[in-house]
Amino acid sequence: MPVNLKLPPMVDGALDALLPSHCLLCGARGQGGLSLCAACEAEMPRNEMYCARCALPLASPAPLCGRCIRHAPSWDTAWAPFRYEWPLAQLESRFKFGDDLAAGRTLALLWCASPRPVGLPDAVVPVPLHHSRLRRRGYNQVLELAGTLARHLGVRLCRDALVRTRATDAQTELSAVQRRRNVRGAFAVRADWTLPEHVAVVDDVCTTGATLAECARVLKRAGVQRVDAWALARAPAHG
Ligand SMILES: [Zn+2]
Ligand SMILES: [Zn+2]
Predict the structure, then answer these.
(1) C-alpha 32 to ligand 1 mean position (Å)
(2) Can you give the pLDDT at residue 131?
(3) What is the per-residue pLDDT across 122-135, written as a single tens digit (0 to 9) for each?
(4) Which residues contact 225 (CB under 8 A, 6 or more apart)?
(5) Quick one: which of 102, 108, 145, 233 could link to 82 by a disulfide (CB 3.0–4.6 Å)?
(6) Nearest to 21 by CA among 31, 13, 11
(7) Distance from residue 66's CA to the centre of ligand 2 (Å)
(8) Which of 4-8, 107-111, 118-122, 202-206 has the lowest mean pLDDT?
(9) Which residues lie near ion ligand 1 (Cβ < 5 Å)?
(10) Phi first, then psi: what are they for 164, rounded to 5°?
């Protein structure tokens, strides 16, 4: 079933009356078409202290994380308004693996309602799924989020500009080094696309940054001048 995320932004309070909803997490009454109650929305782990270059959540204020000081990523700036932690992680896995489209719509609206970065790109490019996985799942959850965000920000969506040229192993169980190897050479810019000078490549969750870094590298090689890396949520560093 195609996902319909064409809801107006949540600032429209009239949606309350039109879309009485229940909180996806606790069952209380939702608000603003969000399918979250005010208390659960307040629990969402906002990413408020982070590395300026890669958006990694930091435990104490610092301009950059240790990894970016040693080796700057291939993208220019990053935006990840949430930390990938409970309860947002629960909504994301329901959306990604459980076909829960209300959870997806809620995540998209949370992203749209987050303070936007300065210097918006000319276009957003979603991280693609390999066609074999797309066939199994029926939809690309990243495209659904990126499409809603692009409409909200008034930025062009380049939905097929990047393609996944080979299927990759699920990244979940892999180390950072394995993740980089796993996605190396897995993406290409389609030859019939001419991309603008400044784009943002969009993923749902950024864990080590390997996927976004590989996409940014490929986009730059195709002539894009500035690539920003956007994800709804960034996982805190392990250990
Ligand atoms: Zn709730
Ligand atoms: Zn960093």
Answers:
(1) 13
(2) 73
(3) 999 999 987 777 77
(4) 197, 198
(5) 233
(6) 31
(7) 7
(8) 4-8
(9) 23, 25-26, 28, 37, 40
(10) -95, 115
Sole residue written with tokens 């066939």: 135
CB 110 within 8 A of CB 35: no
pLDDT for the residue 75: 97
| 126 beta partners | 202
Structure tokens at 209: 């940054």
pLDDT attached to residue 1: 39
pLDDT digits (tens, 9 = 90+) for 3-24: 444 444 444 444 444 555 789 9
Start-end of H helices in the chain? 15-18, 38-43, 66-70, 88-97, 101-112, 131-137, 141-153, 176-183, 210-221
How far, in Å, from the CA of 138 to the mean position of ligand 1? 29
Where helices occur in 49-185 by DSSP H, the ranges are 66-70, 88-97, 101-112, 131-137, 141-153, 176-183
State yes or no: pLDDT of 239 exceeds 50. no
Residue with tokens 């069952």: 27
Instruction: Identify which ligand lies nearest to the alpha carbon of 209.
Output: 2
Distance CA 167, CA 122 (A): 29
Distance from residue 68's CA to the centre of ligand 2 (Å): 4
